[in-house]
Design brief:
about 300 residues, alpha+beta, Jelly Rolls, seven-stranded antiparallel sheet, four-stranded antiparallel sheet, 9 helices, binds nickel (II) ion
Length: about 300
């Protein structure tokens, strides 16, 4: 079912996400917005893959066939392209994030991960972070698919593994983490393939076990990850210092405003109203232009 024109995920979808650690939403991005995002992100892919860039935002792995560097990830895509600012303001996504986390959510990571054709880089089984920063609400990534993901290129997940104890996770790693290299290995592990079309969205809990094999096909697969956390949890547990919270809240507010002004967004769309409770209300003057949308994580880690 298409997600276009829906206001928010249903209770059933939220409960599926809470129980399984992932949720697939079909057709969230369509038409002109999808086309513009695909084009903007292809410009970054072209730049990053033309040569190895001396820029920490462009990350490379070792190609399994050539042994040469292959682009695998690009950080801070919101700062790099206005289409990605408009995307952060997506009201169906933000209402759905609020439905899972609560009104004090903040955006944290914004990245593109990709499988280049020919020798796309493996992402071994992992959790995105440890349990030490997880409080009373889920932390999760909203993954926007810009290309089809089939069994050659897709992510594989272990439903419910976000609830596993650390010992069970370690056991899984010892049996699979270094051994699983190909799609056949991932299939044999009993994991579920996340098969997606351009414009589909995946929510994945950061504690969910997930990974993807080398891509030896000729297909490109690009996904944009926007991560969200509760401000009260970030405030208590980190990993960023408390000063990071209002900086990222202003990024969110600015992006919501940019979406209202974007000429390619349907006029009938009802904007998201960000209204976090105290003590996380933030000063914001509409029309403010931010000096940057790039707040490097390492500059805000707790000591
Ligand atoms: Ni991950």
């Amino acid at each position: 079912m298409s997600t276009t024109n829906r206001l928010v995920i249903t209770d059933e979808e939220r409960d599926f996400f809470l129980q399984n650690g992932y949720l697939i939403l079909r057709g969230v991005l369509q038409g002109e917005e999808l086309r513009r995002i695909q084009q903007a992100m292809q410009e970054l892919v072209n730049y990053g893959s033309a040569e190895v860039r001396d820029n920490p935002d462009y990350m490379y792995g070792t190609g399994p066939k050539s042994g040469k560097p292959v682009l695998r990830r690009i950080e801070y895509v919101i700062d790099k392209r206005d289409e990605m600012k408009v995307l952060l303001g997506h009201p169906f996504i933000l209402r759905s994030v609020e439905k899972v986390i609560g009104k004090d959510f903040i955006p944290t990571w914004d990245s593109m991960v990709l499988k280049m054709p020919g020798e796309g880089i493996i992402v071994r089984w992992h959790r995105d972070a440890g349990t030490e920063c997880v409080g009373d609400t889920p932390i999760f990534n909203v993954d926007f698919y810009l290309d089809e993901a089939d069994e050659d290129t897709c992510l594989w997940v272990l439903p419910g593994s976000h609830l596993w104890e650390v010992e069970k996770v370690q056991q899984w790693f010892s049996e699979h983490r270094e051994q699983d290299n190909t799609k056949e290995d991932f299939k044999a592990s009993g994991a579920v393939p996340v098969l997606m079309q351009p414009g589909d969205v995946l929510f994945h809990n950061i504690l969910l076990l997930h990974g993807s094999p080398y891509n030896l096909s000729d297909k490109l697969r690009r996904v944009v990850y926007y991560e969200f956390r509760a401000a009260h949890t970030e405030y208590e547990l980190g990993p960023h210092v408390p000063e990071y919270i209002p900086l990222k809240q202003r990024v969110l507010l600015s992006c919501i405003e940019k979406r209202k002004k974007a000429d390619y967004i349907p006029k009938e769309e009802i904007p998201y109203e960000y209204d976090p409770p105290e003590p996380f209300r933030v000063d914001w003057q509409p029309g403010t232009e931010l000096p940057t949308y790039r707040y490097p994580h390492e500059q805000y880690w707790r000591k």
